[in-house]
């Protein structure tokens, strides 16, 4: 058992709010037809904790942050970038994150909404 971290994209017309897309069910990603996976990490607790903090600020801490969608805004990418580049000095890790940041910015520029989901 471990943590799987996903970033999904969807068309803007599928977005209902910062945690809901048009076909969101109370289960994990496999039943969400309008979401397309664009990035995946295994056991990335830095990423998960970052998005859990955003989720808690918006929606409180009544529920466990597992299989919960949270919308990724451009400011979130910028803030995460600052954390990552201050935390890591391993070139391979930094390249992986740089690839993610580039893809995420492109998806947003192309008119998609991005969502994070962690599943453990």
Describe the model.
- By secondary structure, the chain is of the alpha+beta class.
- The chain has one domain (4-119).
- 40% of the residues lie in helices and 27% in strands.
- The strands form two sheets. It has a four-stranded antiparallel sheet with strand order 4-1-6-5. The chain has a two-stranded antiparallel ribbon with strand order 2-3.
- A hairpin with a 2-residue loop joins strand 2 (15-17) and strand 3.
- The longest helix has 19 residues, at 91-109.
- It is globular.
- The mean pLDDT is 89.
List the helices and strands and how they pair.
Blueprint: E1 4-11, E2 15-17, E3 20-21, E4 36-42, H1 45-59, E5 69-72, H2 74-87, H3 91-109, E6 112-119
Antiparallel strand pairs: 1-4, 1-6, 2-3, 5-6
Low-pLDDT windows of residues: none
The overall pLDDT, averaged over residues, is 89
Strand order of the largest sheet: 4-1-6-5
Overall number of strands? 6
Oligomer: single chain
Output the keywords:
120 residues; alpha+beta; four-stranded antiparallel sheet; two-stranded antiparallel ribbon; 27% strand; globular
Write a concise synopsis of the structure shown.
The chain has 120 residues and is α+β, with helices and mostly antiparallel strands. It has helices spanning 45-59, 74-87, 91-109, and strands at residues 4-11, 15-17, 20-21, 36-42, 69-72, 112-119.
């Amino acid at each position: 058992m471990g943590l799987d971290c996903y970033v999904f994209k969807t068309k803007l017309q599928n977005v209902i709010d910062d945690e809901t897309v048009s076909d969101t069910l109370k289960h994990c990603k496999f039943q969400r037809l309008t979401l397309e996976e664009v990035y995946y990490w295994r056991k990335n607790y830095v990423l998960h904790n970052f998005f859990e903090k955003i989720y808690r600020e918006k929606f409180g801490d009544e529920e466990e942050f597992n299989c919960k969608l949270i919308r990724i805004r451009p400011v979130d990418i910028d803030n995460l970038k600052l954390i990552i580049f201050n935390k890591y000095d391993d070139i391979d890790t930094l390249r992986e994150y740089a690839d993610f940041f580039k893809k995420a910015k492109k998806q947003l520029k192309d008119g998609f909404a991005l969502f994070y989901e962690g599943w453990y």
